[in-house]
TrEMBL record:
<protein>
    <submittedName>
        <fullName>Acetyl xylan esterase</fullName>
    </submittedName>
</protein>
<dbReference type="Pfam" id="PF22244">
    <property type="entry name" value="GCE_fung"/>
</dbReference>
<keyword id="KW-0719">Serine esterase</keyword>
<feature type="domain" description="4-O-methyl-glucuronoyl methylesterase-like">
    <location>
        <begin position="226"/>
        <end position="372"/>
    </location>
</feature>
<dbReference type="GO" id="GO:0052689">
    <property type="term" value="F:carboxylic ester hydrolase activity"/>
</dbReference>
<keyword id="KW-0732">Signal</keyword>
<dbReference type="InterPro" id="IPR054579">
    <property type="entry name" value="GCE-like_dom"/>
</dbReference>
<keyword id="KW-0378">Hydrolase</keyword>
<dbReference type="InterPro" id="IPR029058">
    <property type="entry name" value="AB_hydrolase_fold"/>
</dbReference>
Amino acid sequence: MKSFLSILFTILIMKAGAQSKVNYDESKVEPYTLPELLRSAGGQEIKTVKEWESIRRTEIVRLFEEEVYGKIPAEAQLKPTIEILEKEGEAFHGKAVRQQIALDFERNGQSLRVHLLVYLPAGQDNPPVFVGYNFYGNASITEDENILLSPSWVPNKKEFGITENQITDGARGQRAHRWPVEKIIDAGFGLAAIYYGDVDPDRDDFSDGIHPLFYEEGQTKPGPSEWGAISAWAWGASRALDYLKSEPATANSKYILFGHSRLGKTSLWGGALDKRWDLVIANNSGCGGVAISRRKIGETVEAINTSFPHWFADRFKKYNDQENKMPVDQHMLVALIAPRPVYISSAVEDRWADPVGEYLGAYYASPAYQLYGLETPASDQQPSVSKPIHTSIGYHLRPGGHDVTDYDWEQFIAFSRKHLKP
Ligand code: GTR
């Protein structure tokens, strides 16, 4: 029998081997050809908005559904029962009104509860609203002690006092540095927060979260081109949007879908699928987000499918180390958001996410925006650090690592102000 130490050694060596294969060297990027954005599968050149919307856009959505993220069941437009847990809490010294809502989904004898936390600037009707998922529960995003804790599964994190896959009081405020809520309110925006684990716990287990509500008799996981976790989270964001649209205080708001990292991948896909999102922001979204997969810098398709086999449709695994065979690349995901403004942000030290590839993913979406006569980034050269671009496709590169900072939010707010004119 192998000793524990020898097993540990084997694992460490395997890890080191896998990591040594990671490429961060621009000069080692092999030449690649991107699938053409403005040419249909049948070879037709796409010259007008009408052709884009009726032919090519539809094709691209289908390709991402079938080959990458997985298709959301048509019946999933499920209406939840709404329970108002808190109607008008006073927050931030009276500057904001806090609402907490539970959306209860039921189907096939199974149920799912999703908590929404909403802050709106006091006395302001229909403010533009940022809608964003968080990683450790709604209570993690600010010090506000009145936020209810979600009972959903969460990965253990000792520093936050999470040791039994259960959110505890220790998680309160732990991610406050990523969510400058008071500044968002002061800028005249609302914020709606959701814990992504409420919609689908982030583990390779399809027996929990939203998926089982749609299984046929005997089914235990989605089919090969059916929804993975990213599609499930995109779905959940749209259900939050249904709620905001049904509420007089936000029914006529503009809605901004924001996400960081895996949740940035989610905001792009969610924004592509649901045209009611007026603006989309993807921060440090990397592989499977905005970064061009064919570059294979930092995280690759194989790496992401190995570490997170539940994020994408099973079918996506066939592109492990076969990026050139993909019928899409990530610039096409951004293009699906056109003509709505989209903002992409990178960080210099976030090399795993391939900041140059993130810029190119944004830049190569330009032809779709140009069909609508919109202004797009002028050059394929990544802008310098802290030199944001606020054309319809917006972008910045900031110093530092994989995170969301005040600088990022300053840009998100300025970009949203410019394009949504609240
Ligand atoms: C990493 C993953 C990235 C990114 C990140 C995150 O481990 O490789 O694709 O999603 O997690 O979500 O923070």
